[in-house]
Amino acid sequence: MARASNISPQTLSVLELLLESPRAWHYGYALSQRTGLKSGTLYPILVRLAEQGWLDTEWSQPEEPGRPPRHTYRLTAEGAKSARQRLAEFSSSRSKSRLRPASAER
Amino acid sequence: MRRALDRLADSVATRLVDWTCSRVDESRREWTGALSAELAAIDGGWNKLAWAIGGLPLAWLFRRSPEAQLESTHIARDPMGDQLPAVPRSSFDSFVLNVVSLVAWWMLLGLWIRTRFPDGFPGGRSEWRIGEVTILAGCLLGAFAAIAIRRTGAADVLAGFVAFGAVEFAFHLQFGIRAVQGGPAHFADMTAGILGVTFAALTENRVGGFGGERVWDARKVGTSLLRAGLTIRRNLGSWAHLALGMMIARWGGRLAISMPGNKPAAESISA
C-alpha cells in the first residue's frame, strides 16, 4: 500500500468530513458542497485516496427512478485510522508553530 | 426567460461533462462517470454548470493518449457500461467550446488592456503602434493557446485576426494612419481578411468530405454547385480563399468610402 505523503489541506478537509461519519457513504456533490472544493479538485483527491486503499467506493442505486446510479465513498478501516493520525499530526504541528516564540523563527 | 436560461445552463453543463468524459483515459472512466452521475442529481442549471466547469481540469488531469483519442468516436458516459447508451460525439460540443474559448480569450485580452491602459490606448502621432502591436501579440498568443487546447475553430478565427492585424500594422507603418481607417472600411477589411483565412483553414480540414460521389447531379443543382465549389477549392487550395478575401476587402473598402459621411483619407486629413 502506498504511503500518503505531504497531504494537502484540501485532502485533509475531505478526510475530516469523511471522518465525521466514517461508516456512512458520501456523495461527491455533497463532499464538494461541504468542503468548498471544485469537482476538478475533489475527484483527483478521491482517486488518490482510493488508490492508497483509504477509501471504499460503491455505485449506489438511484433514489428516484430514471436517475443514474451515483458513486459513493466512505473510509476504509485502514483509511479512517490513517486519517485520524494525519489530522492529529496536522493539528499538533499547527499548535506547535503557534506556540513557537518569534525569536526561534529567526 | 429565467427558466430558458436555466435550461440552457443545464444543456451546456451536460455537454461540458460529456466532453470531459470523452477526453479521459479508460482507467479513469469510473471517476468521470461519477462526475456525470452527480450532475443528474444536482438541482438547477446554474449549479450544474458550476459543477461541470469545476470538473473541466479532469480532462487534462485524467487525459488519455492522443492515439486513443483518435481511435475513439463515441463517449461512454456511464461507468457501469450497459446501463446507459453511449452518447455520440456531437459537433455542438466543438462549436460551444470554440465559442467559449474565443470569449475567454477576448475577456482576458480586454481585461489586460483595461488594466494596462485604463484611459484607452495612447492616441498620439506614433503611439498607435502600441495599441496595434498589443492586439496583434494578444491574437498571436490566443491562436497558440487555442492550438494548445485543440480548439481549431477558435485558432482559425484568431489566425484571421493575426493575419489582418499584421497586414494592417504593415500598411499603417508604410502609409501612416488615415482618418478613414476608423470607419466602416476598417471593419469591411477586417471581416474580409478574417473570413478569408478562417474559411480557408476550416474547409482545409474537410478535404475528402465528398469523396467517392459524383460532383454534378442535374436533379440536385444546389448540392451540385456546393460540391463543385468544394472541388474547385480543393484543387486551388487555400490561396483561392485568400484572394477572395482580398477582393471582398477591396470592394468593401470602396463601398465604405462611397457611403455618405465617409470622406476619402486625403479629404479627411485636409479637413
Q: Your description of this structure?
A:
The complex is a heterodimer of chains A (106) and B (271). With 106 residues, chain A is of the alpha+beta class. Chain A has 5 helices and 3 strands. Chain A has helices at residues 9-20, 28-35, 39-51, 77-99, 102-105; strands at 26-27, 55-60, 70-75. In chain A, strands 1-3-2 form a 3-stranded antiparallel beta sheet. The mean pLDDT of chain A is 84. Chain B is mostly helical. Chain B is 70% helix and 1% strand. Chain B is built from 12 helices and 2 strands; from the N terminus they run αααααββααααααα. Chain B has helices at residues 2-23, 29-41, 45-55, 58-61, 66-71, 91-116, 128-148, 152-175, 184-204, 221-236, 238-258, 265-270, and strands spanning 74-75, 87-88. The chains are: A alpha+beta (106), B mainly alpha (271). The A-B interface holds A 27-29, 32, 38-41, 43-44, 46-47, 57, 59, 67-71 and B 28, 30-38, 40-42, 51-52, 54-58, 61, 78-80, 83-84.
What attributes characterize this protein structure?
heterodimer; A: about 110 residues; alpha+beta; 3-stranded antiparallel beta sheet; about 55% helix; elongated; B: about 270 residues; mainly alpha; two-stranded antiparallel ribbon; 12 helices; 2 strands; globular; disordered C terminus
Offer a quick outline of the entry.
Chain A is an alpha+beta fold and 106 residues long. Chain A has five helices and three strands, in the order H-E-H-H-E-E-H-H.
Tell me the span between the first and last alpha carbons of chain A. Answer: 39 Å
- The average pLDDT of chain B is 70
Radius of gyration of chain A over all CA atoms, rounded: 16 Å
Detail the poorly predicted runs of chain B. 72-89, 206-213, 264-271
Trace the largest sheet of chain B across and list its strands.
Answer: 1-2
Question: What's the SSE blueprint?
Answer:
The complex is a heterodimer of chains A (106) and B (271).
Chain A: H1 9-20, E1 26-27, H2 28-35, H3 39-51, E2 55-60, E3 70-75, H4 77-99, H5 102-105
Antiparallel strand pairs in A: 1-3, 2-3
Chain B: H1 2-23, H2 29-41, H3 45-55, H4 58-61, H5 66-71, E1 74-75, E2 87-88, H6 91-116, H7 128-148, H8 152-175, H9 184-204, H10 221-236, H11 238-258, H12 265-270
Antiparallel strand pairs in B: 1-2
Helix pairs in contact in B: 1-2, 1-3, 1-6, 6-7, 6-8, 7-8, 8-9, 9-11
